[in-house]
Fold each of these.
Amino acid sequence: MNIDFILPDIGEGIVECEIVKWNVKEGDVITEDQSVVEVMTDKAVVEIPAKHSGTVHKLYYKQGDIAEVHSPLFALDTDESASESHQNSAEDPTAVATDKQAGNEEKVNENTNHRATPANNNTSEQGNAAINDKWQDGDFEPPIAIPGKVLASPAVRRIAREHEIDLLAVAGSGKKGRILKHDVSHVSAISESANTDESFTMSNAMGETNNILRDEVNNTASEASYTEKVRGIRAAMAKQMVASVNTIPHFTVSDEIRMDKLIALRQSLKPMFEAKGIKLSFMPFFVKALSLALKEFPIINSQLNEDGTELTYFKHHNIGFAVDAKMGLLVPNVKGVEHLSLFDIAQQMHTTIEQAREGKLSGDALKGGTISISNIGAIGGITATPVINKPEAAIVALGKTQTLPRFAADGSVEAHSIMMVNWSGDHRIIDGATMVRFNNLWSSFIEEPETMLMHLK
């Protein structure tokens, strides 16, 4: 008998998700726990498994559609006992979904122009065998080239559908042959240009006037615009930033830090970290120094409630750091920094960054942050006015380190490694003097890193 699979709650505050890819089609015979569909929320891509074995009777959504939580996702032909079990489990939909994270950017996607059609028994059996092999142990398919499939994000596939472009015919310029937006736009422009050229060739008797018109059409095609829905991580970031600037009165404190001694210390420690398989950057030093400074200024590690009537001081230091992942901007955090060594911090950050860039970051890593760091210097930025990651009270943007001239005490000019820092604070609870004093303490740990030793336990 037919039973509907109800889309469960797949994350706190999530009410809808986008259908990224169906891994089955109508008529396929599936087994319990087999991956049925991949959906994208505003946090990550989630794999939805089958609750029961049976035959897929109907898919209620197409690829790219938006499905609402607690609505039917697909219908399954199964036996009476499975149906009864499904009805019982439907009362607790959170038990249905398995939150296995995977980056949509690192997955091999189906051909854009493919449309699911009922298959004959042989095709269905082959498809099921392929799916079982492909999704063994619940893992996502590896980012390699597979005949008949391409590497492309949902946004790119949507653009290709709108322009009726076969992604198999597009050469990807991204990593591992990934097809990017400008690849599709380029093919679209060439296609429109070719159609225009053919039309004018058939009417070449019109002479010079048509030549001029063709040039104008080609220019228009090469500058073609397109529109796409704001969804997933980008939509979540937009909502978060608007809420922050509309509810938190920001103010900024800027300073420069001399990095000479920290550069020398990092250089001496790098071989020891590399021997343990960890690449040592400056970020663990910044994070640990920030935790030490927060002990002296707990107001910086506090949060104001929504109506501004209560202020919560956090004993734990969950320090977030911005990661420019392929899915969008993510701000995971290292939890309990006050109890971690420099090596512990470096190790956790390394693992977290790798997971974020692969789209496999857990939801817990994105929750519970108390203060954030945005390292714009890693991509060449010098100064910025960062937006606070609500409900936190402060964030700092770190610029790139530059060799600049500075006056010494005797009036001579010396070359120093200088990093610009820019703090944004919640002016409802932090005043300018407090922020400056806090920054001075934090900066002192960076400029004289050996002073951190007296505070370590």
Amino acid sequence: MTHELTNGYSRTRPEDLAVLRKPIRLEAMTGNAKAGKQSQTQIWFDTKNFSEPQDHQGLILRLGRFHYTGVLLHPRNLEALLPAIPGGLKAAIRLESLGELEALLSAGTHQEILQRVQSPLIAVSSNQDLLARASEAGLSTCLYQYVDDGESLHRSIQQGFRHPFLMICFRDPTNIPLELVIASLQSTGTTLIKEIANPTDVDDAIVTLGVMEVGADGVMFSPVEHEQLEAFARRLAERGQERVALEPATVTKSEPIGMGFRSCIDLATLFEPTEGMIVGSTSQGGVLCCPEVFFLPYMETRPFRVNAGGVHSYVYNAANRTHYMSELNAGSAVMVVSSDGSTRQAPVGRMKTEMRPLRLIEARFASGETINVILQDDWHVRVFSPEAKPLNITELRPGDQILAHKAAPGRHVGIKIDENIKEN
């Protein structure tokens, strides 16, 4: 299958006109399924403007609170920045020469990173021989390409689909070249990331993720001002493209289990009566827990709070990630979920952790998967019914139905991983 499209650059050099007026023929690539296209949107940050973690008022230290999934390091700042990289983020390194790669391997840094983040270091380079050597050494690989004409566009596709990641920086502002790459790589296992060259261009970063409806698999957007980082996070939250699948689950067990620590999540927002948060004890899924927006006879409502359960619990977040309850603190970004599956982001204002009696609730989906959640054993703690009505957990009985989220099991530091795992 081929696509014959005329290139539409909006800004060209005179000497390029003859080339750009020629139709560009692209072949839809297939194969490389073993690379495994990333299931979550990739948001990477380039540290080229950083030497120490405190540069730019410690901006790097905040990345874990937003939507970032990876950090691009450089040989000159690797030693200083690596210990400060927030947990759960992929680590990549930009390499220009085989000498840089061999020095990295000799020092064993790639093994240190593997132990730290539980995923291989990603070698990023435009040098194919370097990437081949990196792959032999057990590193993941990302081909970096600069596209400024039809020839470089073809080359990026023909070479890039052989790697787990392809990162492209486009010279011209038009999205047509990006569209061609998306169309060509959609049946491959290669994850496409567009570098946003202008660190203040939030619009470009957001638009890139929506090109041709599906968008690129990710962007590398690296602002050095906190205001730009926060604006980018807000725009991502406002996209509203993420929906969470919710379905009924039938209660199979509801019983007190004794004392333990539970946390309330107090957000700097107000919940709607059909909104809550997904909490569960395993990576197989969780229950949509109610906020304290409904009438209570002995206390005022707290429409900013979800009495969310045991401190060990997973709190399901955006971009197919989870956080342990104990990891959340003031300023953390969390996902608010409506009963229809729509989501929005909100910041944590306070975590309130106390010793309380606890109750175990187990439920089974129609397809057979079982989940459980441990909540404070009190009448005022509630979960949603499939009709989005509040159910007091102390009144739940086997056979009752609750609203829940089913997920594929397997997590490490909050990131979905493919492995055999059993949790109960």
Amino acid sequence: MSEVSKPVEEQQLFGHPKGLFYLFFAELWERFSFYGMRALLTLYMVEVIFAALMERDYATAAVYSSYGSLVYASTVIGGRISDSILGMRRSIFLGGILMSLGHFVLAIENNITFFLALSLIIAGNGFFKPNISTFVGSLYKDGDPKKDSGFTIFYMGINIGGWVAPLLCGYLAAKYGWHYGFGLAGIGMLTGLIVFWSGIKNNVFGDKGLPPENGNIDKKVFGLKQGVLVPVLAFASVPVIAYLLSAYKALGAEGTFFDDQNIVNVIFKLIGFSILVYLGYIMYKATLEERKKLFVAVLITFFMTIFWGFHELSGSVITLFAARNVDLEGIMSASQTNSLNSMWIIILAIPISLMWQWLSKKKLNPRTPYKFGMGLLFAGISFYALAISGASANENGFVPFTYLLLMYFLLSVGELFMSPVGLSKITDLSPKRIVAFMMGVWFLSSAFAFQVVGFIGKQLAIESTDADISGFSTLNIYTDGFMLIAQYSLGAGLLVILASPLIKKLMGNVH
């Protein structure tokens, strides 16, 4: 891959670096592929891959959980490799190739290739996802006031992809077959890769995103340059990841320590334990002031994990609820309901951002703990809306679509209260010597959130081989589950708000 290393005069478009818009469209199409595939994934597993199993919902929940956890955990590894060896350009390109292959392999309706396809996407996401966001930041000089608006433009691309993809991929899957929906997701990823490649060819990135100057890319390990070895190992990891995904069954018998725990569950429990031990060691060594702020950073990460654990049910349990118990006649398919979250984010992002600005001018902008508490309350109310929807079910056990629309509205408000402020607070609260480690823990919180998704999905699994099971056979299982989720989320939100005065003191001068 040819790379331009000479500095060039920065090309501008609408007052921003021209490279921003290439990254915007590359990420839009990558997110199109990711969310288009995700919209189909749970239903595809239930209706095709595990259709013959009595415990198909259980198997689907286990694989979906492992997939989500590994997708987000891979970004920590991919980010480190990019920083020390490949650089952002090569990492994004390698990730894009792996993900494109994964989406196209997923279009082959076969149980063995299914797990290989998911593994290609996991490996590719590890290289692509962390680097394209970092690339956006590198286009701006430190302190550039346009940087925040540049990220706003970039994140709008993410949500446009997340909104449109489930609608189009869901339509093709319902009208013509699963492989057409997955195939369109693959075309989306390939389009994103072509856009990024054209940006490199047109030299819009200047000297940004090149391999680090430490020369590691040309250093040999096992007789191979590291720039060659990394892609080889990335492809070699695919069958290993495929094995982890396919080993979804519990390791132990009922009542034993490993009851309901598969290999991926155990791996993440060990990672979680190791992180806690290391954090304990850091706190022991830290000063009192550092200890206070670090404790708040851990709390914020924990509550964000809870929120994402409930939020990411949208691609699993909530999609199944939409398919089995929501009256979607003449509106959209169950897979297309995955577009609702991104739709509300697009509608609400600017008004909520303006609201914070207005409150800041009035010196009424709530500090981070209050925003997190309110975000969890909104999540709790959103699931409460689904929990009470059963009272409005028709004679066939289907609830009005309005409840699902309201649920996504409330959940999206909660997301906008929490997500935009989280990462910046982690960097502000962490001691400088471990900022990179704490950012890794923050990104891993999404991986651990999928462990929550898997646990809930297994609890709400419907045991049946009836492909058309729906209505009153499933309604109470889902609404009772949603009520429990609402109670936990509301309880967590209230706890955070009540503890906010104390948390504020621990945060010191961090807002």
